[in-house]
Predict the structure.
Amino acid sequence: MPELRRFVQVDVFTATPLKGNALAVVVDGAGLVDDEMAAFARWTNLSETTFLLPPTDPSADYRVRIFTPGGELPFAGHPTLGSAHAFLASGGDAKKPGEVVQQCAIGLVRVRRDGARLAFAAPPLKRSGPVDAATRAQAAASLRLPAEALLDAVWVDNGPGWMAVRLADAASVLALRPDFVAMKGLKLGVVGAHPAGSECQFEVRAFVPDLGVPEDPVTGSLNAGLALWLQASGLAGERYVAAQGAALGRAGRVHVQRDGEATWIGGDVAPLIHGQVRL
């Protein structure tokens, strides 16, 4: 029989409600089966819906499962920050002061409190380096761009399967009008630099049509992969802010900081809805 479960909806990568990426969180997810989780994610029709569960790893504070309208993800960034926020706001007790450890399909992910902001440690890339010529050509065609407009086309895959292309500037990123049919099979991120002295160093867009999310408003996993690649390539410094979501009327801000061996992907979380859902 359906039961009432604690439910929250938050806006991630923004301190201003309605300007980031919405996330639905079922705080009491224990007992739900895969089909029930998938059905609720399709119903919310958000880019991601998460379900908090008791951890099976003794090092973790909670376990999370992450669903899009089109299927389950092993890891995603804005669901990590939003789920950690929901865990803490709902009375969750972290084992370590100032840090939450999330268990998900890629393993353990550390989330630290940076003042009022949360930040997760960018997971290592599972696949990196230039993409093959056919994939690069498909990416160019799906973005309706000539091949030479893609300054780089690389894998930045930390679990979801991201590839990234770099364009000449932020204006070129914002001008994109993709062909989602031609993009079939790709999870494509695009990045371009803003002029020096701008509020944000980079503009980012993320396209995932195969998962029912033609364009994602603000994407933590992509930004985590981009950060590792951009910093390792000398294209970004140890600290920067990326903007994402302007093409969708949002104003997401992703705060990146390299601290020793870890690169942290930070963002504000604005709570919007708190109540119960019958599942």
